[in-house]
Amino acid sequence: MISRTRSADEIHAEICAALGPQMAGRVEMALEALRTSTRWYAVGADFRLSPREIQVAKLICAGYCTGEIALALKITQGTAKTHVTRICHKTSVRRRERLPIKLLLAAGLIQTQKGDL
Prior knowledge:
Structural class: mainly alpha
Number of strands: 0
Radius of gyration: 14 Å
Number of helices: 7
CATH superfamily: Response regulator
Helix content: 55-70%
Oligomer: single chain
Largest sheet: none
């Protein structure tokens, strides 16, 4: 389980270890492509995300915690938490750690093979 007290680097290392080196490398490249892509708005439209929710989703994919999202967007932590909750609900993701993979799959930037996830 990923702890809220861990740094973004520690969480990243844990996710990479869980995925295995090959899948982790593919996810890294795809996340970088998604960060600079215009596909965000197409993916956002697929899940009916608002422009603000797209901003929050980008920050989640960059490894920001709720407090960091609030600071970056100049909103309260409660508002940031509400955005995260709504994004997870709209994308049918139960844990925010899985959101980047869900968005990458939706954008077509990664594909899974049997046994990858």
